[in-house]
Amino acid sequence: MTTVGGVEDYKHFLPRILEQAVERSLWMGTDPPIIGERLKRGEWLKWPTHEREAVKDLFIAAWKQVLHEHPDEEDAEDWLCGIANLDLDVSAALEVWDETPSVNATLQLADFCRTGAEFVFEPDAEERAYWSYPSEANVAVVRNWLLGDGVSVRLDAARGRVRSSDLWRIEKASEQLAEFRSARFH
């Protein structure tokens, strides 16, 4: 679809691509945002229901799983961006994040605020890296969620729960969120 072959060729390799994405993305073609972009290019929403449901179920299951992993092991932002690329329910994915009380889910949130959120808040859509693929509506949902009180409260509450070796993540994430808020109101 992007160099040689068409949608049917991509669909043929998709199970292996998704397997690699879940196990450990080793090359760009197995990054969830790229998979989402390629599926969108392949008009995946017009595929048979059972194929669409399989893709959706895998992305949602991977999303739920990655929230339990330490950010040094997995990157939750990749799966969130993939979900946004596929035009799945981003609000529901963020609700899952809100309802996952583990320390690792909070550390994933901190890392997203520290590193990935800058792309979500980038005004020029072409400069958003992977976040240039999702719709403006999905990007807006993520922006509003990040600026909501829940994210700040969660980060503040984590200060006494995280290992001292991870506290820097919480501190930097809180600083970054404060900058986003400040920039939004100026």
According to DSSP, the number of beta strands is: 0
Mean pLDDT: 94
Biggest beta sheet attributes: none
* Net shape: globular
- The share of residues in helices is 55-70%
Number of helices: 9
Distance between the termini: 43 Å
Radius of gyration: 17 Å
Order of helices and strands: HHHHHHHHH
Low-confidence stretches: none
Strand content: under 5%
Taken together, the total number of domains comes to 1
**Structural class estimated from helices and strands:** mainly alpha
3D architecture notes:
The protein has one domain. Helices cover 67% and strands 0% of the residues. It is built from nine helices and no strands. It is globular, with a radius of gyration of 17 Å.
